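Let us practice reading a record.
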Amino acid sequence: MKIRDIIQQIIYKIINPAVHRLVKWGITPNFVTATGLLINIFATVILMYGAIHCKRGNYSYVGWAGIVILFAGLFDMLDGQVARIGKMTSRYGALFDSVLDRYSELIVLFGICYYLILQGYFFSSLFGFIALIGSMMVSYIRARAEGLGIECKVGFMQRPERVILISAGAILCGVFYYFAGDYKLYVSWFSAPIFEPVVILVIPLVIVAIFSNVTAIGRLNYCRKVLNKEDKSLQ
């Protein structure tokens, strides 16, 4: 069993009491999924408010947004467990979950790009846009592959990893700002800033941007091998 699967099973054991309570209350998986989307929208609103009303170097709202994003990520696991334990699985539910997950991720990445642009970090915002493309393609290739009858879950940078990295980066950025304020390190010779807390947010964003696209390309290559093998067997 992969480490990712082991961690997933541990989280399931932790959240299962809450899942049983939600089932008892009659909460549907689709309601849980929609709630996760609304929470992610709220996180984006926090980022946009911080971008507009905070001076450059104030990352307090980034930290709060990270906490909200991480909290919303729990709903990605809750909805599936509610469906399984409550025996409410359906094909439409799976489609609804997939679509709203894409909306959630794109909205959050939009919020991060918006924040970085308004705060004057245009170059860093490009990594947010690249991460958005990679995240979309990872999901699209899997969906398209499944439409062709191929199970395609290969690759490292799947949605849980992306959510954890981005939320952790935002939280740590806010924590660093809380303890260090506008603190910066300077090169004494040139009096030029070489570090500020936004780097803590951007580094995970760069990782997601690179490896989500690597995962997408890897999935495409995996599907190529499977389809070519199937085509040869039919000849």
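A brief commentary: The beta strands are 185-187, 192-195.
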